[in-house]
Specification:
The structure is a single chain. The radius of gyration is 16 Å and the shape is globular. It is α+β, with helices and mostly antiparallel strands. Strand 5 and strand 6 form a beta hairpin. The protein contains four helices and ten strands, in the order βββαβαβββββαβα. The protein has a single domain, classed as Ribosomal Protein S5, domain 2, CATH 3.30.230. Helix 1 runs parallel beside helix 4.
Length: 200
Amino acid sequence: MPTKTRLRRSTIVRRTAETDITLSLVLDGNGRAEVSTGVGFLDHMLTLLAKHSLTDLAVKAKGDLEVDQHHTVEDVGICLGQALEQALGDKAGIRRYGSATLPMDETLATVALDLSGRAAFVWNVTMPTEKIGNFDAELVEEFWRAATNAARMNFHVLLHYGRNGHHVAEAIFKAAARALGAAVERDPRVKGVPSTKGKL
């Protein structure tokens, strides 16, 4: 009888004076998302992230939006990074690396990542607008910086070109999703942890 593969999942709860967040992640999912953060644009981006990475993501967040969106967006990023690291466990059998170059109308963006156990964040992006609706465009960077540090991964973003802030953000999230989906995928040829160190 074949051995049943462990479902890689995790739940993170983060409560501070600024936010109250519960985030659940299933790496071996179908792209389902149930997201409610109080920040409409972030909900949209997280839904795209789940859909295009084929992970299942559930997020409930309450934050001090009367101040601004920063704490909510950053803390959801922290929770996502922590959930990713927890769900991966010892990282045995994964592909580890992922990259995607993705067009979004007039925009082209590349994301490359390594689930290395070391945080490195490179953001070669100039957002073309300060606002995307009522969303502060600079928070796209803050979200991914927080997720990168919490997941202890390498995360590099290059915006080749793009004029529309919404398209730029969406291209980055979709490219990140495709890169992440590739990196967490199990490779039957990989025996143990994909590192000569024997640990990630």
